């Protein structure tokens, strides 16, 4: 059930799957954030390890759906990126949307949140360029999730 706005100071995470990134062209696909109802997970509800385990359990389905990274930002940073987008400034909301497993095709994820707005393809491709992204194997992502802080190190491709 959709709920309240997430606080601006809250950190949210986005799973980055192989189909979201074109390694040959070194660019993101708009499907990563386009929406509507682009999914995020909230650090205020689940630990980093729980969030990444949730991404692995629910999204990592080789060979087509392969988790290759995790993006993170505060809610205020996401809002700033969207409102400052030069081609089409867009105001967004980040809404609590915990999943209890009763929704068709959904799993249990109390940390789930959404951006309800549909974003332009250009903006959807611009967001990942401006948030922190960690790339790695499943083992690396889980190992780093156990460390203090958001992530121990961030990588840009």
Number of domains: 1
- Sheet with the most strands, sense and barrel status: 6 strands, antiparallel
Mean pLDDT: 87
List low-pLDDT spans: 148-157
Structure described in brief:
This protein has 157 residues and is of the alpha+beta class.
Q: Key terms for this structure?
A:
single chain, alpha+beta, globular, disordered C terminus, 24% strand, two-stranded antiparallel ribbon, 22% helix, 157 residues, 4 helices
Helix and strand layout, with pairings?
Elements lengths: L10 E7 L3 E2 L4 E2 L9 E5 L5 H12 L7 E8 H9 L11 E2 L2 E2 L7 E2 L2 E4 L5 H6 L5 E4 L2 H8 L12
Antiparallel strand pairs: 1-4, 1-5, 2-3, 4-9, 5-10, 6-9, 7-8
What does the model show?
A hairpin with a 4-residue loop joins strand 2 and strand 3. This protein has a 6-stranded antiparallel sheet. A two-stranded antiparallel sheet has the order 2-3. The model is unreliable at about 150-155 (pLDDT under 50). The protein has helices at about 50-60, 75-85, 120-125, 140-145; strands at about 10-15, 20, 25-30, 40, 65-75, 95, 100, 110, 110-115, 130-135. It has one domain (about 10-145). With about 160 residues, the protein is of the alpha+beta class.
């Amino acid at each position: 059930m959709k709920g309240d706005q997430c606080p601006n100071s809250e950190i949210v995470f986005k799973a980055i799957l192989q189909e979201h990134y074109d390694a040959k062209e070194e660019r993101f696909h708009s499907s990563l954030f386009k929406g509507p109802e682009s999914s995020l997970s909230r650090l205020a509800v689940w630990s980093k390890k729980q969030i990444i385990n949730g991404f692995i359990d629910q999204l990592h389905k080789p060979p087509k759906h392969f988790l290759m990274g995790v993006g993170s930002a505060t809610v205020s940073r996401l809002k700033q990126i969207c409102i400052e987008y030069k081609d089409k400034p867009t105001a967004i909301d980040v809404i609590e949307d915990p999943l209890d497993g009763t929704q068709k095709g959904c799993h249990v994820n109390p940390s789930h949140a959404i951006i309800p707005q549909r974003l332009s393809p250009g903006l959807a491709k611009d967001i990942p360029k401006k948030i922190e992204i960690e790339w790695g194997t499943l083992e690396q992502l889980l190992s780093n999730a156990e460390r203090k802080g958001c992530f121990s190190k961030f990588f840009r491709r």
